[in-house]
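name: query_chain
kind: protein
chains: 1
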Amino acid sequence: MIWKTLLQWLTGDVVGRILTTVDKSIDNETKRQELRAKAIEAALEAHTQEKLAAMQSKMFWRVWALFAVPLGLWWALVMADTMLPFVSLSVPDLPLSVKPWADLIFGSLFGSGAAVGGAQAIASAIRGRK
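structure:
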């Protein structure tokens, strides 16, 4: 106690003011980070709502089907050619210009299905523990 009083007397409470300034600076940084997180969250929410609104349009699904249906038919032919060796369908590979689009469509179909299935499995496992 005496040392604290002596230090305050010698320094004119400079140390106390420095520590107070550091504390306020840390509080301000924390508030800035909180505001930044809220802004990012709001932007992501707006982006999600925009995507959901776009997916409500029938035109979105028509355009999506324009690409997905032919790709699905090609995939069905590949599967039939693989599973039925006595039937020679001679299904060619996709052109290199179409391959990135096909990978994206397959990923969106099977990836979203796998993600939903995984989330349901985790949720049922958690419910089973309770």
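note: The chain is about 85% helix and 0% strand.
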